[in-house]
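[scheduler] slot 2 assigned
[scheduler] job type: sequence-to-structure, two independent chains
[scheduler] chain ordering preserved from manifest
[runner] begin chain α
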Amino acid sequence: MGIYTRTGDEGQTSVIGGRVSKDDDRVEAYGTIDELNSFVGQAISFAEGEKFADIRTQLEEIQQELFDCGSDLAFVKINESKYKVKDELAERLESWIDACQEENPKVERFIIPGGSTLSSTLHVCRTVCRRAERRAVTLGKHTDINPAVRRYLNRLSDYFFVVARTANVRQGVPDVEYVRSKKVFRK
């Protein structure tokens, strides 16, 4: 099987149910999810050793779910029976977030991406995830999409923030705080 088809040479690409311009909002949305998936793969490569086994397993599952998100956004016509992403995935992310939060120190100031290599990469995942969510919101303004994808991406960016902090904790590396910030997170 050849890798090149030449069918996109004129700036069009196939989606489920038709063809669209390669800069269509739909392609932007699932393309950004694909970019995110690449960074998640990079994060997995940095999550070495037994102390990151749970995070590695979670990230591997997230990679599969990101493909599901992209697939759901690739439908030109609504086909709810074919959707793969369900709200249960966002709920499961919440349980992972809660478990990681128990390991993390209390946040008092804004956190700047940094610390360990794994943490920094997870922060890149967070910011690309936020962009993917924005692209999904843009797409949803003019066409129906699976709303569970948008909720999943919103929760996933929270997961990346929390797990980036956990990665630093497990390596004994402090978070990088925004030093010009007053204490803004109080309970």
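[runner] end chain α
[runner] begin chain β
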Amino acid sequence: MRLLVAALASELVAFPDDLPGFDRLVTGPGKLQATYALTRALDATTYDEVVVVGTAGAIDARLDADVYEISAALQHDVTDIDGIVGQHVSLPPLVELDAEGVTIATGDHFVDDAEAVAVIRPLGAGLVDMETYAYIWVAQRFGVPIRVLKAVSDRAQDGAITDWHAAVTACSHQLRDRIRVDYGV
């Protein structure tokens, strides 16, 4: 059995309530809610794989509005005691997956302005979201394989939240198509 995970129910609107071979978890947005909900789920049930689907802002202009496999995640909203952005005082700067793909920057706020993108982009990420680092970190603590698929909903610039609201349903359909192709359900 696999666990299908999304931060928001709106990211799963294209998915049936009962997807064969998958349990479903909506965690709520942000790193704390993601950590709490996924920890509870993995503590209660043994899963063969965690499959995360959701939306992300593209901060790399070369990334089109498509679905991307995530290969690594970093936190863009932390600094260590020396003030180095992206470095946490006790967590790894990067959590990596055995997948070819895109690095995503995770933070606890919705990125919607060019100034924020200018700070985040040099960290090496192509996408930005609010949960992926937490999902990967938790799954790795439990020793459960995890796969993350993100659909680009916006450009993380001024007005991105309006773009996200307009795009989330289409992104859900893109993600549903990818799950259908990759898992046959």
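[runner] end chain β
[qc] chain β: The chain is about 30% helix and 25% strand.
[scheduler] slot 2 released
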